[in-house]
Amino acid sequence: MEIMERLGKIVTRFPKQMIAAIIIVTIILGAALIKIGISNEMKEGTFFPENETVDANFKIEDEYGVVEIVPILVEGKDRDVITVETVKEMLEIEWAIYNDTGIKNTLSKPNSPSESIISTADIIMQYRFAVVTGEYDVLVLAPSFKQKLIALNGGKNINVDGVNMSKYLDTGESEDKSAVVDFPKMKDKDVKDTFNDLLNDERVPALMRGQIIQLFTKDFTNTTLKAEATMIIVNLNASELEGESEDDYDERFEKLETRMVDIIDSRNPESDFSVVGGALIGKDINKASDDSMKIIMPLAFGLLILILAITYRNLLDVILSLLSIVFALIWTYSICTILGFTFNPLTVIVPVLILGLGIDYGIHLVMRYREEREAGVRVKESVGITIQSVGMALLLATGTTIVSFLSNISSSMGVIREFGIMCAIGILSSFFIMATFLTAVKQVVDERKEKRVDEDKVEKKKSEQPEKDVGVRFLDNFLAKGAVGAEHHPKGVIAAVIVVTMILGSGALRLESSFNIEDFLPEELEISKDIKYMANNFNSTREEADILIEGKNMADVRILKAIDETVNNMKDNKYTIIDSGEPRVESILSLMQDYAEDTTTNTTQDLKFDKEFRDLFEASDTDDDDIPDRDIEQLYDWLYEENEDTRNDAVPLLHRTDNEYDGLVIRIKINSHTLKKIKEVNDELNADLTPLNKLEEDGVVDNVVLTGGPVVIHVVMDSIENSMKRSLIITILISGIVLTIVFWFTNKSKILGFITSIPVFLVVIWILGTMYFVGIPLNVMTLMIAALTIGLGITYAIHITHRFVEDIGRIDDIDRACRHTVTNTGTALFGAAATTIGGFGMLAFSVMPPLQDFGVMTALMILYSFLASIFLLPTFLVLWAKYVKKKNPEYFGHHVDAEHVIEERVATDEKLGEAKEEGKVKKDEKEEEKPEEEEKDKKEEEAPEEEKKAGKVEGVDEIPEEKEPGKDLTTKKEGEPTEEVPDKEYHKIPEEKEPGKDSTTKEEAKPTKELTNKEPEKINKIS
């Protein structure tokens, strides 16, 4: 309270200086924002947490080279891609992509097109070429795209001899004319027959046969030989170039994928070709984020203007509130830009949040300021009282809200931490600007008006008490039902809450986390439809998990043996791809075995085999178990130094620093069925790592980490759940401690803070249960809703509790006090909740589904919190108050200076018609009984103007009798209760005061005590 009192004094003493300071700071921060600029980022790594698994994944990308898969979806003209026309179009587009200089240099293996670009068309025509030429080595080495087209379209191809296969790597024809093969032109039936023969030819490697089936949609069968779609897989080298920044890297890949789109469009194929690359996905998500802002912000501001216009009915107040919000946005974005934050779709929430919550501060401050002015308080004093009184409740609400956002600092996800800090800065900026700039401008403007206004007009205005309109009266009656429930049906209310909580709680316990970067794409985009189609219609996702092994010496036989055992453990895996009984795994051991083993047959030559390396390998394998046990470093050196091809094969699996081999990578091909079984995949692979983990325990290696795409996604999903739990626990603990301390300090109650928190704790369960039943998972957006429920929802409970304790201190009837609290404070909270719900509800118009889900769920959470505070919290407060009063009847009286309040109101109550003298109430000098009509006429003559109009003049029997100073207005001299005084009597504005005189005292009376931080409940100053 002291903080707000000091702030109020500063603002009221130096309003012009405060306005100038706020404007100058805003200009400086705005200039910084323009100069630095906003940096946007949206890719999968944006949401990765900071932990060992993610670090290992990035390390592999940087040091071992990573293949970036860019799928090109191909949908057939007549729902069939196994046709001459589709195969021809695919080969022509592959040829064009391969021959594009920029793309070719970025391929995973620029000198080997068959390994860099893979499609069903390639495999079919490779087999066709092998059958016609009789040279099955082409199944391994592969002819050029041009030769494949010749085999399809018909023509003559130069064939040298069956031993030298280097010609198949050329794009042009050989100059050797020693042999010419005539390829007959193929028709649709020939393509299907060739494909059928391929599937049944044992000379075709099993890997190739399995691969081609996986590249077709699930509708493919061996009998129909039809498939409605297939894919071209373009493998790019995802390593960063030397000196390349992250932004440059992203831009380079975006250009590469855009170039593929341009190549396809330039050929205008009849089949439907769609590039579905990660860079294009990120580009479209960023565009969707920008589009969302363009839609949401105008709608939010429009709704805001409408609500403010209805609430204020004053143009200046509307402009000031909007200007304060704009200032807060500038402060927030500028400070976060200076801190180096990167903006992403998550930050779209921030301006909406500032609009929805920040404007509440303005509404509370402006409405309380008006209340003081209508009560006849001068401008300067009204501003001071407003900041001091309303500011305390707002400061508590701001504190709990900031705590809820800052709790995200505990998250392992950098993007979540930055979001929490950004929101906290935004809320704090909104509160400070509203409490200083807005109030200071009001003071400067209204003080000028005050000097021009005639005091008689002021006094006349003070005496006018406009009646509530029909809408407000209806709202009051509706909200009063919360008090009725607390008064008459507390057990029923609690029972109903228990039932609802149990039902929704069952859903909350089953709520699961989810993460997929593609979820941020608008559903109506073509790329979104393509991604969804691929996920639902293809058998394989072509995923890869990696195992990173690090240590000082990787040339250790124990490491190679552990690798062999680990791979053998994968043979019974459900999600690891198995070919001919062997897991599809690449490691330095498998690479050495490939170079040492000759698999040449009568029809195909093993082009990987090298006799020199075989001799070295056999010499190193002393126990003939196909695992070298000595001179291992010599084998590594051969792979690294023999030639470019061997080095290109070794680098993705073996790392060397200063001639020391310090790292290995095992690459595992898996199929997690579009991440639906991601947890099972992770558990399966972790179980396989026992031999390698034993090496780490024994100190043979420094580190063994399971990583790679699916594993990282699993880590992200775990981080989402853990982040929600941590932020929720932190928010509950800190908010609970703060509320307990505050209510103990102000009300000497140990449990009032906990009681205030009960509805919000229940709302957490309700909102999580609702998410489960409507099918919204926990993701990087919705994980914050639980903590937000505490931070935002508890503000409504704080206002109710704060006002209830204040009311019960001056109204001796607990039930009446409850009704008074709910109908007065509840109406103000309804307006505040409406603005917040409307602000977050605007996110439903976002083009990104996760933002839509977050907006709808947060708006629903605010509604739950409001309803719980109005209809549930009063029940607990009434039960608490009755229990406390029963044990200590004087408890509530200790918190309110009843004598001062009664003296103030009795002395100024014109309806009583009593003179004022030294703060004591005198009896009516006329004690003679008068005829009823004469008494009625007398009262009507003395009644306030508004009561005359309404025809309401209360009887003499309703006037308290002979009160002693300090006694309750509602009790008789003997202490027996009299008839209740209507609630409005407690808030009636004094009339006919002398200009400039305090309305609470006589001219000769001592001045009223000032409201200080030690007497927070003496006068009702909290809205």
Protein architecture, described:
The structure is a single chain. The strands form 5 sheets. Strands 7, 10, 11, 12 and 13 form a 5-stranded antiparallel beta sheet that branches. Helices cover 59% and strands 7% of the residues. A hairpin with a 2-residue loop joins strand 14 and strand 15. It contains 36 helices and 15 strands. It has 1023 residues and is of the alpha+beta class. The model is unreliable at 159-178, 458-466 and 894-1023 (pLDDT under 50).
Report the structural category: alpha+beta
Count of β-strands:
15
Form type:
elongated
Rg from C-alpha positions?
A: 39 Å
> What composes the largest sheet?
5 strands, antiparallel
Residue stretches low in confidence (pLDDT < 50, at least 5 long) are 159-178, 458-466, 894-1023
Q: How many DSSP H or I helices?
A: 36
Question: Beta-strand percentage?
Answer: 5-15%
The percent range for helix content is 55-70%
Question: Which helices and strands appear, and what pairs or packs with what?
Answer:
Elements: H1 2-13, H2 15-36, H3 52-63, E1 67-75, H4 84-98, H5 101-104, H6 113-116, E2 117-119, H7 120-133, H8 138-141, H9 145-153, E3 155-158, E4 180-183, H10 188-200, H11 206-214, E5 229-237, H12 246-267, E6 272-275, H13 278-312, H14 315-338, H15 349-374, H16 379-406, H17 414-452, H18 455-462, H19 470-488, H20 490-509, H21 526-537, E7 543-550, H22 557-569, E8 578-579, E9 582-583, E10 585-586, H23 588-596, H24 611-620, H25 632-641, H26 644-650, E11 654-657, E12 660-670, H27 678-688, H28 690-698, E13 703-708, H29 709-747, H30 752-774, H31 785-808, H32 814-841, H33 849-887, H34 898-908, E14 916-917, E15 920-921, H35 932-942, H36 945-950
Helix pairs in contact: 1-16, 1-17, 2-14, 2-17, 4-9, 7-9, 7-10, 12-13, 13-14, 13-15, 13-32, 14-15, 14-17, 15-16, 15-17, 15-32, 16-17, 16-29, 16-31, 19-32, 19-33, 20-30, 20-33, 22-28, 23-24, 24-25, 25-26, 27-29, 29-30, 29-31, 30-31, 30-33, 31-32, 31-33, 32-33
